[in-house]
Amino acid sequence: MRKSSIFIIMILLTPLVLALLVSASIEFNKTIYVLKTTYLLENTDNKTVTISFDENNIKEFLIPDIEGWQVLRNYTVYFNGVDITKKCSLKSYKGNKIIVIPSYTLKPKEKVNITTVQMIEVYWAESGLTISRCSRSSALLENVRSISINSSALTYLGGFWTKHDNLTTWSKIIELKESIDADSDSLAEYVFKVSKWVAENIAYNPGNFVINYPAKILSDRKGVCGDKSALIVTLLRLKGIPSLIYFSIVYEENLSSKESSKYLNIEYRNFALHAFAVVCADETYVPIDTTVYADVGKCPYIDGAGVNISDKIIVFAQASDSDPNEVLTFSLPSTKLKANIYKTIEKKNNPREKLLLPVIVVVVFACITWLFARNIAE
């Protein structure tokens, strides 16, 4: 092949190679998930039943955008297979957004299928490739010297958060806070020690996803991720540190679980429910996860928090001033309404696969360059 021909081919291929590499660098840091929730509702009564999707009945959370972690690409709502998204609206609910679907009156023995589909873009964080991922490390807290409270909901201590069987159980939380505080020289150190204490002293006890109130958690010295998070948030708020609980789903292919009762059946497919605490100080927020974490960094419960090191965790709701259990529960309009709910999440692409084409192009380009260089040398 003539040198001029090789040179022309190189010039023509260069823009293509650059475009593919840029595209790969962007897409390589993203993973796309599709969360599908199907509600199969049947009126088993002899009279009509009105079904509603709102803050007082069935709650369908809109996946929130969190800078550097995740973004919602789009959502679609189907009623018996027909797209009714334009008829739906969004409404704020306790720091979250829920999808409000028009009410529908079910005739006796009538069945309906209401399905929501949400496409979520999650920034990739595994293997240290965090070009687009915003990893919120413990170092961020070390720069915080004072706290300006921008929301009373994030420091609220009442209701669920201070509930107790007797004054003795609540006084134990106060004693624990004062003990940790006396041994801490800074806000960051207090947060680190609270995380460490909960991780080492509250045993993980698998069970349902009902969150106990903090005084009981401390008394029992056991609980699930939601219990641990609630205790952490309470100890932080006693110090005046704004904080909340994030509820999330953890993707795990082929994993499934069920919750069943006479008229309500819920099945989770390809994921498990999870909760972790979040510190919100001076526009800096960092996760604290004493359940899903890796032993890395100065504070592994922050630096190694699952949401900091993996693309498999997707936040779907938060709890700040209200009882966290209110966020997770919903009411059916009638005891005669039979509901089968299927929540499924699917991973739509593997970032590693996106590298295949760019790698092939680069290899071909490198071979052509080598041939060109060899021809020049000859």
Write structural notes for this entry.
By secondary structure, the chain is of the alpha+beta class. It has a single domain (3-369), classed as Roll (C8orf32 fold). Helix content is 31%, strand content 33%. The chain is built from 10 helices and 14 strands. It has helices at 3-27, 139-142, 167-182, 187-201, 214-220, 225-238, 300-303, 306-309, 324-328, 356-377; strands spanning 30-43, 49-53, 70-79, 82-83, 89-93, 96-106, 111-123, 203-204, 222-223, 243-260, 264-281, 284-288, 313-319, 337-347. Strands 1, 3, 4, 7, 10, 11, 12, 13 and 14 form a 9-stranded mixed β-sheet that branches. Strand 10 (243-260) and strand 11 (264-281) form a beta hairpin. The model is unreliable at 22-27 and 126-130 (pLDDT under 50).
> How far is the N terminus from the C terminus?
13 Å
Number of domains: 1
Shape: flat
Mean pLDDT: 85
Strand content: 25-35%
CATH architecture: Roll
Rg from alpha-carbon coordinates: 26 Å
Low-confidence stretches: 22-27, 126-130
Main beta-sheet strand count, sense and barrel state: 9 strands, mixed
What is the helix content? 25-40%
CATH hierarchy, class: Alpha Beta
SSE order: HEEEEEEEHHHEHEHEEEHHEHEH
Number of distinct beta strands: 14
Tally of contiguous helical segments: 10
Which structural class do you get from the secondary structure elements?
alpha+beta
Q: What's the CATH topology label?
A: C8orf32 fold
Provide a quick synopsis of the model.
This protein has ten helices and 14 strands.
Break the fold down into its secondary structure elements and pairings.
Layout: H1 3-27, E1 30-43, E2 49-53, E3 70-79, E4 82-83, E5 89-93, E6 96-106, E7 111-123, H2 139-142, H3 167-182, H4 187-201, E8 203-204, H5 214-220, E9 222-223, H6 225-238, E10 243-260, E11 264-281, E12 284-288, H7 300-303, H8 306-309, E13 313-319, H9 324-328, E14 337-347, H10 356-377
Parallel strand pairs: 8-9, 11-14
Antiparallel strand pairs: 1-7, 1-14, 2-6, 3-4, 3-7, 5-6, 10-11, 10-13, 11-12
Helix pairs in contact: 1-10, 3-5, 4-6, 5-6
